[in-house]
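Extracellular solute-binding protein: structure, please.
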Amino acid sequence: MKRYKKGFFTAVCLLTMIVISAGCSTKAAEVDEDLLGVSQSDMDKVTITITCNSKLDHFAAAAAERFPNIRLVQDCYTGQYRISEHVADIEHHDFGDLLMVKAGHIPKVNMSDQLIDLSTQPFPVNFNANLLQADENGHITLIPGPLSFNCNIYNKTLFEENNWRVPENYEEFVALVQKINRTGIRGLRNCYFDSASQSYQIYQYSVFSALDTLTQVDGQIWHNKLMSGETVSLNPMKTAFENMQRMMDIGAIKQEDMSVPFNENIEAIANREVAIGGGEIDHIRTLNSSSKDTFCFMPHFSMTDGQGWLLNLGYFFGANKDLQQPGNEKKLSAAMEIMNFIASEEGQELLVEDGLGMMPATIDAEIPDDPALAQIHTQIESGRYIMRPTYDMFSSVLDTDIGAFIRGELSSEEILDRCSLVLKQGPPSVQSLGEASDDFTILQTGCLKADALRAATNTDVSLIGISEVDGYDPVGGIRTKLYKGSIAEDDITRIAQPLMDVPLTTVRTSMTGKELLSLLEYGATSETEQADGKVSRFHPFAVSGLRLAYHLNRDEGERVSAVTLEDGSKLKPEATYTISYIAGAFPKGKFDGKEAGITLTDALKKYITTEKKVAPDKLRIQLNL
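Here you go.
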C-alpha cells in the first residue's frame, strides 16, 4: 500500500496552483468517453472494437502479434446482468465492430438486421451447418466460438456397481430412470427451483423444447419465425409439455423438485441420492474433485427423434453491419481478418484458454482426452448439439404456469391459450420510472450515478469509478450506459450493480479540499490494484458536485485542473467537505467512513423517480490527453 499512500499526498503544492490557475490550460486532443483506457501509442493502426461479456486476453494478445496493423479493443461488460445489457445494446444499436454473445442470449432480441451476412465469407465452412443457424435464405450472421455443453451427468461408479448401462436412445433412458427409481435412489432429478437470478422452471421447459423441436429443421424454422414476430402456431411448444408430462408420469419430475435449489441437487448427485441430473463441465469437475466416485456426461435425449443431443452453451460472434458503410473499407477488411482468426482452430483454442468453452467448434477438432466426455463423443463428432430457445415474450405466463402444470393445476392447452393471447395483445407494458432525454456515455452514466449518490447521502461531493476498455473495472465501476427514452427497473439494476442480489453499499465521510484533490489526482482503483499497492495507469473518477478537467497522460500532480464546486466557487484546500462513494473504493482504513444506509441501486431508483427526467451533463468533465 505504500505507493498508494505516497501518491495520495503528493503534489499538494502543485494541486493548489492548479486550483488557482483553473481554466488557463489549452484544450488537448479530444478523448472518446466510451473508450477510456485505450492506448494512444497505436493510433496508426486500424482499431476494431469487440463488444463482449468475458475477457479475451489470450485471443487479443495473439491477434496483436498476428495482425500488427490491427488494434483489437475489448468493450467488455463483466457484470452479471448480461442479458439486460445485451438487449439494451442491440435495441439501441450500440455495440462494437464485432459482437460476442452467449448462445442462450441470442433469442432474447433480434439482431439479424444489424449484423453482416457472413455466408459469402470463406470461414463458415469451418463449422457444422447446424451450428451456424442459417435462415431460410441461407444468410449466416453468427459463427460459433468454442463448444461448451450442458448434458446429463451420471455417477459412473454407481452405474458400474449396479450394472446399469448408459442408454442410447430416449426409450432406453425412460426405462433406466424407472429401474433406478425402484432401488430407492432417484433415477433423474433436475432443478425446478426459481431463484432471483434464474427461472429454472422456464429453463427446464426450454431444454425439452430444444430437444423435441429445435433438433428438427422444421422446428428451427418455426422458432426463427416466432422470434422475428411472425404469427405462428404454438403446437411445437405443446410437444415440450408432452415430454414434461412423460417425465412426471415416471417420477422424474415431482412437485417437491420446485423447492430444491440447483446446488442442493448437485450435492444430492454427489451423495448418491440422485443418479442422473443436468449440468455442465464445471459441475462434473466439482463432483470429481470432491467425491470418491467418478462422474461423466451422457447426452440429453429427444422424445421426437429418440437420439442423444447436447446443448451448446458457448458464445457466438458477429460483425456490425455499419462496417459496410462507405468509408469503412479498411475496418471491414480488418474485422473479417479477426473473424477468420476466430473461425480457425488456433483462434478457437485461444478462446478456450480465455474460458469460453471446452473445445474448438471447428470441424474435425480434436476432442479433449477427458474420460468425462467418453459417452458424448458420438454427439460431438456428428455435430448433434443445439442451442436452447428462450420464450421471453411468454415469461408473464410461463413464470407461474409451468409450476401450475407440474402441480396438475393447469393443462398445456390452457397455458398455450394464454401464450396465444400474449402474441395477439403483446406482453404487459413495462413500468416507466422516468425518462432520459438523450443517450449517455459511460462517463456521463457514471456522473448520473454520482448525482444519485450525492442526493441520497446529502454530501457535497460524490465519486464513482468508471470502467474502461479491456475489462478494467474499478471498485464500484460497471461498463454500462443509460439510453434515451423510458427508464425501467431493469435499467436501474444493470447500471447500478454488477452482481445479482448484491447491491453496492455506499459510504459517507469528510475530508479537506486538499485531500479531495489528492484523491482525484491518484484516481480510481480496482481490487487488484489496491492489493498490489500500485495502479496500471491513471483512472479518472466520475463526479457530482464538482466541475473539472482531467489530463489523462500527465504525471500525478498535473492530472486535474479547473476544479470548481457545482456553483462555480473554488474548492478551498483547508475547508472540510462531505464525500460519498462506494464501499471498497479505497483501501481499508484510508478513511473513517460510515455506511450511508442506502445502496447505489436504491439511490439511483429514488433519484430517477424524483427527477422524472434526466439529461447527460456534457460540460461537467473535460477529458484531455
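Notes: The first strand starts at residue 46 and ends at 52.
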